[in-house]
Design a protein that fits this description.
By secondary structure, the protein is α/β, with parallel strands linked by helices. It contains 8 helices and 9 strands. The protein binds guanosine-5'-monophosphate.
Length: about 210
Amino acid sequence: MKLNERGLLVVISGPSGVGKGTIREALFELPDNNFCYSVSMTTRKPREGEVDGEDYYFVSREEFERRIDENQFLEYAEFVGQYYGTPRDYIERKLNEGKEVIIEIEVQGALKVRERMPEAVFVFIVPPSRDVLFERLMNRGTEMTNDIKKRIEKAEREFHLAYKYDYIVVNDDVYNAADRIVAIIRAEHARTERSIHKYYEIMEGKEDVEEES
Ligand code: 5GP
């Protein structure tokens, strides 16, 4: 039985090109997972194959700014000249339903979530080496050279912010990385501060202890 019934907000973050997106996909391929993905909103143009409402909600700058004014984002950031933001409502609803909500965001945004929802779990993804990251960014083929350069410079600065996260996961192999995140989520549910209230209720006889299903 799980003592903490509320879902966890799991923030997967790290420099562009570390493989956050593929790790997230691997998490969702796991059987019997209880995850849901919060689709972000962006003003960036869709890449080939990207689907509106699945990869991102693609909107204009005007629309994004209107939503900022309406306080619709848990966080948003400007990244290489484009806005990216996490809609707030969906997350609250899913956490209350007991789902683990995965968000995959860049570093500035993750640090804002840390201020607003310190109870979330913050995972910093790192590449097995600097060269691997730079190669990944160079070989993406979807970005303009100038954007790649900006992404590399940004990644260099962001490596120094790893200490602000709860966990560091090396993306040496995407399935290993996903396994480590699952282990982190399990352990986080068992943390005393998340589970002690329910535990006391059980011990005071207000709740029946159920067998693990
Ligand atoms: P890309 O253009 O490669 O899809 O994303 C650029 C960066 O923005 C990535 O590091 C990605 O994780 C991040 N990102 C995606 N959605 C959000 C979001 O809602 N908020 C923030 N702060 N970053 C995001």
